[in-house]
Every structure is written in C-alpha cells, then in structure tokens.
Amino acid sequence: MLNPNAKLNTKVFDTDCEVSPIRKGFGEGLLQAGKLNDQVVGLCADLTESTQMHLFANEFKNRFIEVGVAEQNLATVASGMSAMGKIPFISSYAMFSPGRNWEQIRTTIAYNDRKVIIAGSHAGISVGPDGGTHQAIEDIALMRVMPNMCVISPCDAIEAFKATIATLNWPTPVYIRLAREKTPIITTANTPFAIGKAQILWESSTNPSLGSKASKLEACIVVCGALVHRALLAAKELEGKGVGSIVVNLATIKPFDAETIISCAKKTGAVVTVEEHQIAGGMGSAVAECLAQNCPVPIEFIGVQNKFGQSGTMDELIAHYKMDVPDIIEAVQKVISRKG
Amino acid sequence: MSDEIIKKLELQANVIRQSIIEMLVTAGSGHTAGPLGMADIFTYLYFHELKHDPKNPTWPERDRLVLSNGHICPVFYATMAHAGYFDIKELQTLRKFGTRLQGHPHREYLPMVENSSGPLGSGLSQAVGMALADRIDHGQKNDRFIYALMSDGELDEGNSWEGIMLAGKNQLGNLIAVVDRNNIQIDGYTENIMPLEPLGAKWEAFNWHVIEVPGHDFTALHEAVQTAKSIFNKPSVIIAKTIPGRGVPEFERDYLWHGKPPNKEEANMALKELRTLGGKIKSEHQ
C-alpha cells in the first residue's frame, strides 16, 4: 500500500491521474525561489522556455541573463555571479549542461566552491523524438562523481518544485535532473521533502486481513525520476501476485541516504534499482556501492545497458530499453530467486 | 605618475621576480616565463591601482582580480605575499605537500584569491559574471572594477570568446581584461600554434574597447588602466605586449621556458641578474 506518511496523490494508480512535466516544477520553483530571495539570478543558454526558466525571466527581467548557445559560458559566468553573492540557477538540456560544460562545472563551481544550481532538463531517453544526441543518460554519473556536488532527480513536477526551493538553503552546488515529457503526479503539496532524504512511497501490506496477498516483504525497489510511477505500478502488480515489496524514491542521489537504503535492504534482503540512465555509474551504482559495504544483498539494475538512445515516443523507448513495468517485475522476481 | 613612484614600482617588481625564481627552484617544477613576464603588471595592480586591503581580503568594496591562467601563480603568490596578504616565507612552500600555494591556485586553501584556476579559458567568463552581478547591485556606477588577467594562449579556448561576446553584449564598462601578449605557449610561438592576429581587431569586433601597450612600462600601463576605467559603455581589454622571462635575459622570449623551472645554477644566475639589475649595480649578495 502507499505509505500514508508520504501523503501521496490518491489517484496515482488511476488512469486519469494528473500529468505534468517535471521541468515545469523547476520553472515554477525557480519563480518562487526568486520571490523568496532577491539574490537569486537565472541564466540560460537559449532554451529559456524549454527549460521553463521563462517564468522567472519574465518576472525578474533584470535578474535574468541570456548567454546564448554557450554552455561553457553558462557555467563560468554563473560561478562569477556566485562569487559576488548571487544564487545563480543555470538551465539547459542535461546533454549540454552538465554534458558539454563538465570541466567548467568541476573547476569553477565545485572545486571553486561557488554555489550554483545546475538544472539539466530533457534528461533521460524520455526526451523521445529528438533522438540519441539529446538524450542525456550519463549525467547522473557525471555529476555524482564530482566532490562538493549534490545530485537530485525529482520524481514529479511537485517534487521538482520543492527541490528547487530547497536548494536555496543547501550549502553546496546542486545538480537537478529534469525530464521533458508529462509524467504522472505522484506526490502532493503535503508530501515531505528534504534534500538528502530518501522516501518510502510504497510498502506492501503483509496482513491478509487487509486483503493483501503478500505475506512478507521480499524486495526493495529503489527508483528516482520519471520512472517512479512505473515502479509503483510494478509494486502494486507484484503484490497482486503475492510478492511484497518496498518502493523507495531516492530523489537525492548525493548525498546518499545510506540509512534508509540499508534499512530497506535489511528488511527485504534483495534490491532492484530503476533509473532512466546508463546502469554504469548511475543511481543504481550508488546503491550498490553502499550495500556492498554495509549490507550485501542481491541487486538487479534496471536502466540503459551501455547503449545510446534513439527517436521514438517515451513509452516506446522505455519499453525498448527494458525499463517498463514488466521489466521491473521480472527484475524483482529474478532478484528474489537469487537470494541464498 | 611620478618618477619616484615608477622607481618604487620597478624595485618592487624586481623583488617579486627574485621571489619567483627562489620559489621555482625550491619547488622544482612550475612555470618561469609567464610569471616573470607579468611581474610588472601584477606589481602595478597590487602596489598602485587596485582598491584592496590585504588585512581585510573579503572587503566587499574591493576591486576583483580574477586570474584566469592559473599556471602563472608564482607571480600571483609572490605579489600577494609582498603586498601583505601572507608571510613571504610561505612562498617557499610552493607546490609542496600540505601547502596553501597549490601548483594552480585553489580557493579552499587560499581564501584570499577570488577563484581557483588552472584549466584555461574560464577566468574571463567568471569576471564577466562578477561584472554582471555588480551591475545588478550597483547599476552603472562603476565604483569598483573587475580585472581579468589572462594569457594570449588561452584565447585558443572557445570559452574565452563566449565570455568576450557576452561582455560586449552587456556593455560591461566595469570589466577590464588584461591579456599577457607574450607570444608563447607550451608548444611554441602563438602565431605558429594558432594565430591570434589581428588580435586587437578581433576584440574590437566583439564590441570591446582595445588598448595595446608595452607591458613593462609603468607609465603606459597606468594610462591604459585609467583610460579603460573611463570607458563607460564598453568593456576594455588591455593587450599588454610583454617579454616572457622578462628580467633574466637568458630566459627571455624563449617558449622553452614556458613550463619549466630553473635549476640551481640557472636560478643563481637569474638572481644575480636581478640583484645587479643586469650588471648595472653591485649586488649586496656578491
């Protein structure tokens, strides 16, 4: 069942569940952040509406800098503004920022300890028709390997809104990963959010008197970003098959909430990670690094398997790259079968 | 600028050059030509022009000096130490384990520097960001200036030109770039590696005010900076024609001295050259 403490959208399993792009939550969050703190500035590299920064740019014209198609400049100029006390938010497609300007982010933002919030929009293969050149599926790896960098991958527009505002009081530079397509709204305004805190969204009931077919919790699904909804659908279906599971939304990949992940791994004895990213170096790798040291359990990884993306619809691509509900269910069954 | 001030600056630059040689020979690695070539400009800025306070390095009203080509940090460190930011003895720790004087500057260890640097082509853009932020806070008052010190070789980097374009677009009169036009980079002479000329015309085409000056002439440097500060609606670039290795004739104009330190013997020779002003006076160390 949905974790009542998470105060999730009660329509999350309904076919008419509301949808909204995750990037829109960032745009609205930035506008709100701008209202809350007059040191907030926005910089964009010719993708102002696409990255939803136009909401801020229209409201705060003198605090918005258009740098043109120049992502290296985007990062370095923001670093300089941070040096003068500003709180710069920079946005582009994740493929270009942090894809193209990685070294500038490393040297002038992370190493330089200048707090800049980097919003990478259109991340994942769910970008769809634009094709492989525009589908950033390496960005989590690029950013989580960088010291002094916080990495957040919100699961819906509401969480993106909260994450964007939460960065105001976070001490280090932050990377926020955003997706293009409309995806289901999972959380509500009342869902707790804190940077660095993973959240249990689903925990199967193991009480038959409550109508559950599952008698025990057999696996934990750790997921982030736009695939959280699919993980919930998989968990619900698994429960119908008598397989109890936990779904953890690991919205903050770094700093890593080891406590929650270790506790869920102990409780279930098996883990499946799910992300719209290369398996190598992504969120699942962070989970594996933690559990290998602290609670070695079988792990299966759902993600892109050492391939580039291609054109197609979001649904077609997620099915093609085996990140869909049936793939998650299969991975859960497999990981349970691997238990000693 | 009076003769007396010029004399004082010349002596100060000479002392800084001696420190550079001493630092490099102790470190056993590092860059020689660039730091010696920029000693006059650093001296001019820190001992005459900059609005700064070594006892209060984070003074908000200070001018900002962004060093882009971090590899010339021996001159940066030596100038800052002689200006009073830290003890001159610390210069001998350059590049040693545990030092605050990293091989390329790092703010974490040396908070009085405005930016960590080393990877080329990123400093000007940071200065552009500072100038933009200053505009947001203070409008066009231009009561503090942002200086970006950069090399000619790093103009090969695309990021440099992205910054140049953005500064031109925003008419940043509070921004002054100083290009160390010494014509060398690691692999050879700039015009052989990647021709930059006509360099002044390029900056001008990007809507900058361009001033070309001899880089070892304090009067000319002073006039150039005063002109740059008076240009209201454009960023200014001072293209300073410097001699790499300046002060030690054996090192001058040779790109092979870009990225290596002197050995003991070469350092002794260089120090003698500097202490005697090329044999013009007797050294007290002789």
TrEMBL record, chain A:
Pfam families noted in UniProt: Transket_pyr, Transketolase_C
Task: Keywords in alphabetical order, please.
Answer: Thiamine pyrophosphate
Which SUPFAM superfamilies does the entry mention?
A: Thiamin diphosphate-binding fold (THDP-binding) (SSF52518), TK C-terminal domain-like (SSF52922)
Highest taxon of source? Bacteria
Q: What are its cofactors?
A: thiamine diphosphate
Q: What InterPro entries does the database record attribute to this sequence?
A: PDH/Transketolase (IPR051157), THDP-binding (IPR029061), Transketo_C/PFOR_II (IPR009014), Transketolase-like_Pyr-bd (IPR005475), Transketolase_C (IPR033248)
Against CDD domains, the record matches this protein to: TPP_PYR_DXS_TK_like
Q: Where is the Transketolase-like pyrimidine-binding domain?
A: 20-185
The family annotation for this protein states: Belongs to the transketolase family.
Listed name of the protein: Transketolase
- The organism named in the record is Candidatus Nomurabacteria bacterium RIFCSPHIGHO2_02_FULL_38_15
User: Mind giving the lineage of the organism this protein is from?
Assistant: Bacteria, Candidatus Nomuraibacteriota
From TrEMBL, chain B:
Positions of the Transketolase N-terminal domain: 12-270
Mind telling me which InterPro entries this protein's record contains? THDP-binding, Transketolase_N
Membrane spanning residue stretches: none
Q: What's in the keyword line of the UniProt record?
A: Thiamine pyrophosphate
Per the entry, which co-factors are needed?
thiamine diphosphate
Pfam families per the record? Transketolase_N
Q: Which family does it belong to?
A: Belongs to the transketolase family.
For this entry, the protein name equals Transketolase
- Organism of derivation: Candidatus Nomurabacteria bacterium RIFCSPHIGHO2_02_FULL_38_15
